[in-house]
Structure formats: C-alpha cells, structure tokens
Amino acid sequence: MITNKPLQFRNYKPTHLGLLPYYHQPTNVIGETEKLCQNIVNEARLHTKRITNGEGDLAELVPKKVNWDLKRDVEKKLRNLDQVYQSSINQIILKQQKKKKKKKKKKA
C-alpha cells in the first residue's frame, strides 16, 4: 500500500536546493527539558525561602502518608470484613440471650 506522505528531512539538511522546503529544524528536546527542570528547581527554592521566612505553612512540606493508597485499596475489603464482624457479634449476642432464657425457664 502506497501512501502519499509529504517528504520531511529532520535528521540532516539536504544539499539540493529543491529539497530545502522539506527541511525541518530538529527540536531541541534537551534544551526544553533543561528549562523545565530549571523552572521546577526555581519554584522549589522560592517555596523553601517562603517557608524559612515564616510565610508558608509547614504542612505543605509534609508528604502524604505512605499508606494512603493502601487505605484506598483495602477499603472495600474492610467493609466486607466489617459486615462479617457485625453479623458474628449479633450471633454471639443471640446465643447469650438464648442461654439466659433457658436458665430462666429452668429456675421457674
């Protein structure tokens, strides 16, 4: 199957003048990444200065607890376990009430 895609030169600059319109400047991914990293570092420094000057809240620096996702994942299982726990407590209470009734009947 033949597709009619436009001709593009990205890795090298063609020497023929007729092919120059198809030449595209390679993107500078490394430069963009470095700029992004530098912005992140600058924001972190600014935030640290705010905290040390007493302007910011120290709670912002505290990371989430390690188990926050564990709680989310286990929540459904805990609900099911809680239902089983409640039903077993109810059964124990019913057994105790039946024993009390039997004792009262024997005494009477």
From TrEMBL:
<dbReference type="GO" id="GO:0005684">
    <property type="term" value="C:U2-type spliceosomal complex"/>
</dbReference>
<dbReference type="Pfam" id="PF08315">
    <property type="entry name" value="cwf18"/>
</dbReference>
<protein>
    <submittedName>
        <fullName>Pre-mRNA-splicing factor cwf18</fullName>
    </submittedName>
</protein>
<dbReference type="InterPro" id="IPR013169">
    <property type="entry name" value="mRNA_splic_Cwf18-like"/>
</dbReference>
<dbReference type="GO" id="GO:0071014">
    <property type="term" value="C:post-mRNA release spliceosomal complex"/>
</dbReference>
